TrEMBL record:
Residues 3-134 form the Creatinase N-terminal domain. It comes from the Bacteria. It holds the Pfam family Peptidase_M24. The lineage of its organism: Bacteria, Pseudomonadati, Pseudomonadota, Gammaproteobacteria, Alteromonadales. Its EC number is 3.4.11.9, 3.4.13.9. The keyword Hydrolase applies. GO terms for molecular function: aminopeptidase activity; metalloexopeptidase activity; proline dipeptidase activity. It comes from Thalassotalea piscium. Keywords: Aminopeptidase, Dipeptidase, Hydrolase, Protease. The keyword Isomerase does not apply. This is Xaa-Pro aminopeptidase/Xaa-Pro dipeptidase. Residues 143-344 form the Peptidase M24 domain.
Length: 360
């Protein structure tokens, strides 16, 4: 199905082929999860080029592909591509210009034009990334499994929260719990911050020790079959003061405002504005984070990117994060983030950890 959609989007001219260099896009199209690979898709054949290190793995994973093991000592990648282009009588070649450096492409381009019957070479940008926005049932299942692991891992570490524990110690335990529960790796470097450091939207866990009254901000995710989850929860260690309660309620209201507006065809801009309108009416408007969220899948940050300029429409099968936040320097930050998806039945919230303000 993915190959069919790709051909419909790109191979619109006769005797056309497309070169795919992005590891993420290669995995999406072929299923191959290794490295050192290039795809060439023609009208009739799907080629995956790799070397001896990944040849057996590619044969197992890339179903429907002709897997070629390139002899790196005796044949350049360009020479092999030229051979395949000539076999398929390609006259038009497309390539992912965002995923190969200029020097490499200039050399490859010159040889292809000299040694094949290719008449036109054109760059393509973002086409596969747009296809990746809509998740299949299998892709959605993997994201849900990853989110379930993250939910449970968070529940497992909360009893360990105690005065004196460091950000780093708690983050390591969270990562360990996700691994024990079946995560292939962390979705991204876990963000786990205490007190005033929670104002750093992407702060790195440090040796800062937990104290009574601290905000605890945790942003993390798990991975299943390459697909990622992404969730943020904010807690208070001890009794929350009035300002902490006020800001938490503000962020929660802003998130819910966006969630309530997610229907097929709504733009990312419209969702951002719903949330931003709540924050803009508050005394903390100057401390609101930029943007509202992003798509998530094989990459942590995928299309669409929800913000004031996002005209992309949210459709059924699109998995996005909704994550407004308030970040006040030298005080702290509050962010609440969930992964959600539009289904035939409406909006489904994938991340299930409780969102009411918890005093630990």
């Amino acid at each position: 199905m993915k190959i069919k959609k790709l051909r419909q989007q790109l191979l619109t001219a006769p005797q056309c082929g497309v070169l795919i260099f992005s590891e993420i896009n290669i995995r999406y199209i072929s299923g191959f999860s290794g490295h050192a690979a290039t795809l060439l898709i023609t009208e009739d054949t799907n080629y995956l080029i790799t070397d001896y290190r990944y040849f057996e793995q590619a044969k197992q994973e890339a179903v429907g592909f002709s897997v070629i093991c390139r002899d790196r000592a005796n044949q350049t990648l360009t020479a092999l591509i030229i051979e395949l282009l000539n076999q398929n009588k390609c006259q038009t070649l497309l390539f992912e210009s965002a995923h190969i450096n200029v020097e490499q492409w200039q050399g490859m381009n010159a040889q292809i034009m000299q040694q094949t019957k290719v008449l036109a070479i054109n760059a393509v940008v973002g086409v596969i990334e747009k296809l990746r926005m809509i998740k299949s049932a299998d892709e959605l299942s993997f994201i849900k499994q990853a989110a379930k692991i993250a939910d449970q891992a968070l529940a497992n570490i909360l009893p360990l929260v105690k005065e004196g524990i460091t950000e780093r110690e708690l983050a390591i335990e969270l990562d360990y719990q996700m691994s024990v529960l079946g995560s292939e790796e962390v979705s991204f470097a876990t963000i786990l911050l205490f007190g005033e450091r929670s104002a750093l939207p992407h702060g790195i866990p440090s040796n800062r020790q937990l104290k009574r009254g601290d905000i605890i901000l945790i942003d993390f995710g798990a991975v299943i079959n390459g697909y990622r989850s992404d969730m943020t929860r904010t807690f208070i260690f001890g009794k929350a003061d009035n300002k902490q309660k006020q800001i938490y309620q503000l962020v929660q209201t802003a998130q819910q405002a966006a969630l309530d507006k997610i229907i097929p065809g709504v733009s990312g801009k419209a969702l951002y504005e719903e949330s931003d309108n709540v924050l803009a009416r508050s005394e903390y408007k100057d401390y609101a984070g930029e943007g509202l969220g992003h798509g998530v899948g094989l990459q942590l940050h995928e299309q669409p990117f929800l913000g004031p300029d996002c005209t992309i429409k949210i459709e059924q099968g699109c998995v996005i994060t909704i994550e407004p936040g308030i970040y006040i320097p030298n005080w702290g930050g509050v962010r609440i983030e969930d992964d959600v998806v539009l289904t035939e039945q409406g909006l489904e919230i994938i991340t299930q950890a409780p969102k009411q303000l918890q005093e630990l």
